[in-house]
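Give me the 3D structure for Antibiotic biosynthesis monooxygenase.
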Amino acid sequence: MNTKPEPPYYAVIFTSQRTEGDRGYGKMAEKMEELASMQPGFLGVESSRDNHLGITVSYWDSLESIENWKNNTAHKMAQQKGQEEWYKNYFVRVCKVERAYSFEK
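Predicted structure for Antibiotic biosynthesis monooxygenase (105 residues):
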């Protein structure tokens, strides 16, 4: 996440296990990140994937912004494709960040 907003803000934690092969997943993931970054209320994203396990955390200014992104037409199409082809399973958590701190050398 490039910007470090001051709390409170919201985090959507998306953990997933992938199926074998790419089948367009990489391209769609890039497209979704680009599209999300243009949505009102988007604050940033962090993502990591190790073999088939992935964790993506997106940051938002409000629950309304999260709901709008969830219901975005292109995002809904990607969600459907994910359920049909790309994911063995996934879990979504929506959290309010009350406090944040960091260290950097």
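The mean pLDDT is 93. Let me know if you want a second pass.
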